Amino acid sequence: MLHAGGWQVAKRLAKMVPLGGTAVAIALVGSDIKKKGVLKGVANSGLDAIPILGLVKNGVELFTGDFISDKESAGRKR
Fold first, then answer.
1. pLDDT tens string 19-63
2. ∠ CA(50), CA(11), CA(26), 5° rounding?
3. pLDDT of residue 38
4. What is the 8-class DSSP label of residue 78?
5. Cα(41)–Cα(33) distance, integer angstroms
């Protein structure tokens, strides 16, 4: 659990580096689409790819959680 949580924090921190963060955000588009759906995943990655906006967004998300929520999985729907 701690290992997985550490990976999530590492990905967020990597996205916060101005130009390198753009490359990381582009590389993680597929994972965002898988977790959030096509429209929300592309929107999330697009915001992350913008250097200053992505920095601010990911900095806030470290403390508050995702602005764009994940899609409902089959196990969570009721």
1. 777 888 888 899 999 999 999 999 999 998 888 898 889 889 989
2. 40
3. 95
4. -
5. 4
Q: At what angle do helices 38-49 and 18-27 cross, to 10 degrees?
A: 160
In terms of residue numbers, what domain contains 22? Answer: 2-64
**How many structural domains are present in the chain?**
1
Q: How far is 19 from 21, CA to CA, in rounded Å?
A: 5
Is the residue at 77 inside a domain? no
- Is 76 part of any domain? no
Q: Is residue 72 part of a domain?
A: no
Whether residue 75 has pLDDT greater than 70: no
Closest CA to 24 of 55, 64, 68, 69: 55
pTM of structure: 0.70
Query: Tokens 């009721």 sit at which residue?
Result: 78
Give the pLDDT of residue 3.
Answer: 62
Decide if 78 is inside a domain: no
